[in-house]
Design a protein that fits this description.
The protein is of the alpha+beta class. It is built from 7 helices and 8 strands; from the N terminus they run H-H-H-E-E-H-H-E-H-E-E-H-E-E-E. It has 2 domains: 147 residues, no CATH class; 97 residues, ACT domain (Alpha-Beta Plaits), CATH 3.30.70.260. The strands form 2 sheets. The protein has a 6-stranded antiparallel β-sheet, covered by helices on one side. A two-stranded antiparallel sheet has the order 1-2.
Amino acid sequence: MPIAADIWHITHLELTIRVLLAAGLGGLIGLEREYSNHAAGFRTHILVCIGSAAIMLLSIYGFSEFVIEANVRIDPARLAAQVISGIGFLGAGAILRNGSTVSGLTTAASVWVVAAIGLCVGAGFFYCAFLSTVLVLMSLFVLNKWEKRLMRGRRYHEVVVRIHDRPGVLGKIATLFGQEDIQIVNVKMKMTDQTSDLDGERIKELHFSIKTTHSEKLDIVMENISNTVEVVSLESNAFKLQKTQSIGRTQVL
């Protein structure tokens, strides 16, 4: 049965519409990542989606002149398969590990999904592309808030406090946590090679693993700890506070 040659050809208008649609759908997901201040944001998702759509279009229509050749077999999925595996390298660059905390997994997954959406658009599988975009946006916006509410009492927070090596500082900081009913799960101490610029005292790092169901209480404790004289700097999953020793102020970095 002869193969219809028309299925291997696409007009310039249809090609333009597919590429622009890929840019729009990828940009919608990228806007959420940009709004959440993640590394792979608006432009990254647009580029990934356009690139995936272009590769899919190339795979289907880019070799149409060889269809009539007797010994040539056309496989529209061959380039698409390389996109699915190759996009993992880009997603891996968005994953960061800081101690026991891993961030960027959701962004890496969104980049991978955007690549799949681009392939759908390039292949003309529009319903799947639109449905996937809606479900991804629901996952990033709606389910993200639901997940935080559900897991807020189960997740641990990592807090790193750099202090002057003086007696009683650990107990003072632990008391500040206890005053707000924040449970300390684990504490690790590490002596650094740094010294204070003012009096030459050694700097020690205290690594706290804490558990709380009230994030507002954690904010209060972070502020109280940062105001402690012996504290040099303070880091948590959400922010970093650096104390300027010369003038005694605290800066949010």
